Fold this protein.
Amino acid sequence: MDVALRTSGRFGRVIELLEAHTNKITYASMGFVLVAGSALAVREGSELAYFDEREYLTMADNFVEHHRYTVDGINPTAYKPPVWPLLLGFLRWLGFGVVGLRVANVVMLAACVLLGSLLARRIAGRTAGTLAAVAIAVFPVGLYASTTLYPQVLGAGLVLGALLLAIAVPDSPRPGRLAVGIGACFGILILTVPSLAVVFAGVLALLWFTARSRAWPLIITAVVVAAVLPMAWAVRNTVQMEAFVPIATVDGVQLLNGNNAKARPDTGPTVDTSEYEEYADEQNMNEVDETSYYREVALTWIRDNPGDAASLYVGKLVQHFGYKDTLQTATESSSSRDLIVAVTYYPLLLLVGLRFVLARRYRLSPVEIVIVGWYIVNAFVTAVYFPRIRYRLSADIPLLVEAAVAVVVLLAWYLHRGDGASAAEEPVLASDEGAVRDNAPAR
């Protein structure tokens, strides 16, 4: 039987090399990330360009010095989700400087290269795994973000890990352990980048689809494990903050930044909200009261201006797929950087779109549906607050996996475009030995 990715004729030698050297190319891609990312980290130095980075570092240092989660070194806080500042604090306790923290984030991106390669390989074979590794490694936004003190790379790694565990369930003799791992990934994710946790629903649906008769015990296990850390954190907040704060208080100011009379689709935290901040200071509000006040101001504006709010929401939704941000740190903006983002991001969307065009002939696997479905839902969630390219990165990295699958599907279609078959009998997902090839129509 002829296969979709033939190793003879046009593209044959390239495909042969990609399949024969998947592991070597993946490790080389990880090495590239470590070398290039570390060089960029050293170049960035110890000065932190972004306000949020400085906040994370302050909280990390206070944790080391005062042994408590605090911004000012005195009062307990729940301002930021705790995992990232505490992780930075642990590294600071080990003696890491700012450059060392940057490099630690680079290491997390290298881990994403490996996880993304393994996931793509499980979906569509070794060629997809090779392409995914290279794509994640050279994606400029990811490489740059890995040299900052932001948690988006960690968030992407947790999502990739959970997806990889979920699709391994059907073949595992101990699926319960995998369910525990999935739950742990999401328990940590909820306390790292809470907005990303919506993908948990997709992973649970994936378990339901693939685990069949074993699904319910696995789903319950994953949910219970995922709830442990967030529940413990909520109890801590209730005791120390004397108020129920499920995750963080930063959501109030973020909602206000994205929903007020001065807000525009691209302003984000650069919008002027000083009048509300001054009023909160005049009233001597504590952290919990302040976030409640900001939240109510934003919701009141939305209720009183439904048309403007709806128009702004649509604008933010479109901006989510944009190629440039309006930044508080003007020195971090440049036309060349915007161009790099555009020429690397929009081809990614095009490839995924073409994958859906060919879904009739090469049926989408459940994990592909989860990745793309979550990517779309994440845009709607982000637009409630405000979009930022770095916020999108945690979803961009898994989408690079889907883009690698799309390239393999496009190659399969090109090599079999004259076969006259209408649709594949099976989905792409089958094994890590090349599901697209095995499911391609034969001559």
Residues 12-439 form one domain. DSSP finds 19 helices and no strands in the chain.
